[in-house]
Amino acid sequence: MVELSDNSFTGVIPESLGNLEYLEVLNLELNNYISDSSLSFLTSLTNCRKLRALRFNENALDGTLSASVGNFSNSLQNFQVNGCKLKGVIPREIGNLTGVIYMSLYKNELTGHIPNTIQDMFNLQEFYLQSNEIEGTIPNVLCSLKDLGALDLSGNHISGLVPSCLGNVTSLRKLNLAYNRLSSRLPANLGNLQDLKEFNVSSNSLSGYIPLELGNLKAVTLIDLSKNDFPGKIPSTLGGLAELTDLSLAHNRLDGAIPDSFGKMLSLEYLDLSYNNLSGEIPKSLEALVYLKYMNFSFNKLSGEIPTGSPFKNVTSQSFLSNDALCGDSWINVKPCQSKSTKKPGGKRVLISLYTFLGIGSLLVLAVGYVVLRLRKTKKNASQADVSLVKEHERISYYELEHATEGFDESNLLGTGSFSMVYKGILKDGTLLAVKVFNVQLEGAFKSFDMECGILQNLRHKNLTKVITSCSNFDFKALVLEYMPNGTLDKWLYSHNLFLNLLQRLDIMIDVASAMDYLHNGYSTPVVHCDLKPSNVLLDQEMVGHVSDFGIAKLLDAGEAFVQTRTIATIGYIAPEYGQDGIVSTSCDVYSFGILMMETFTRRRPSDEIFTGELSIQRWVSDSFPSGIHKVVDYSLVQPGDEHIDAKMQCLLSIIELALSCTLVAPNARARMKDALSTLQKIRLQLVSSQH
User: Fold this and answer.
1) Do residues 556 and 680 both lie within one domain?
2) For the chain, what is the domain count?
3) Is the model's pTM score more than 0.90?
4) Which end of the chain offers a freer environment for a tag, N or C, measured as fewer CB atoms within 10 Å?
């Protein structure tokens, strides 16, 4: 066995490896090896008759597979050359590899057709050919591979039919044909694949009705039929898929109602029905889907009341866009539903009810008046706790805040900080608020409150959290903030049911950089935030980022480059000079912003358990830059089969390069926030241009 994977080895792979007569396993993946255009080292390795496994993944071999690849002995079981810039066609001689069980050729530049000789690889169990430039049709001979468990042909230029004979390959566990040019109907006999776990035909031109027989895929956990041309009704038989966790039927021409049977898919976590012509009400049966974390019904013709049960409690308006006839709670941003009594007034009964209501209402007014007078006497301090930061806004009393948060109930708690707790509040007029209540029992809470008030009452920027008013007396201090329905960046990065794509993350970083540039350069007195991290970046309804929490911020007087402090910020995000000497400058924020960028695009916290000893997130990223950047970035940002994969990788390289320049040890050597903002805007422009 020769195991040299995941290093930084360079040079040409030597042909002398073919002299290792008893070699069984050769693993050179994740290096920087090269080869001549004919990959002559592969020819030499055919002399090693005991070879069982060959792995060359992620090396820039930049050559073609020659006919000699068919000369390996029948002992070869594992053959992997992913991401090696292979060109040309797959040779017919590959069919000679009758012992191969696992073959992976994905993420190359292979062209031509899938050779019919592949039918001779009768032991093949897993075949990965995604992210190439393969053309032609799916050959029927694949159906003769009776042990085939995984077939991934996604991200190619394959056209024609989905072979109906695939329904006879009952060993299939994974079938991915997404991102091709398939244009047929889905064969009904695919329902024979009783053990199929993943079925993905997204982003083709498939048409015809969705087969009822897909309801027979009892083991399936993922079905993605999105971005095709399926018409008609959604089969109610899909409701019987008890193991299904992910279902996407988005971007089709589906009409009719959402099947009530969907309420039986009790394992469902992800449901996307957006961009269709669905009508009727959203079934209340969906309230039974307690594991459902993401749902999208946008851009349909749905009507009626949005259910309010378990999975619907945390949804946002993004799930229901462009369904004008839907109604529900105001925080979802749809019209309110009319009560049944409003819809159907009924003569004397309504009149009697009205008199009864008015009588009870009068008594309530008297009772409330009495209670208010009592409260004013017993809680005089609280009633006087009104100091408005925004003059044009009506002042909000302690009692209103108490009522809005249901007595500062834990069920309305949005988050906690060093000196405060933030609650969701709803005023009587339906206005949503975030109420930041400071714990006055803690040393430093008064100072934190005063600092945040002092800074935010004078700052105005679209990417800073807007303070509506404050409420303050001797024993109660709170800030009333604009409510951010999508929570924090931290929540979106680390919740398994939420996802931010590359452009969304980049846009949020631009929002943060814009806010920080304003703090550093756009205000008469430079402001150093001192605690920039994902939990202090809030996201509004449109997923626009807002920097929040100025509790330990510092103001720099005119001419001051830095100040000193004993206040400790969050470990992992603080600049070296801040942690060692308490020196605070705008460069400290730049450092934190660099760490924030690394975390956002790697999805690794600075406090992650892998960072021990001298290994920090900055060191980890730096050591991988530039050639190994694919090892550290969030793998979900660049998926195999993505037609824009090169542009996205270049975008990530540029972002990481900027993040590294923000986290240099010497403060004066770091990028300025103004320059960081400009660089990110240019990166975004290049990314968007490459996708059009």
Assistant:
1) yes
2) 4
3) no
4) C
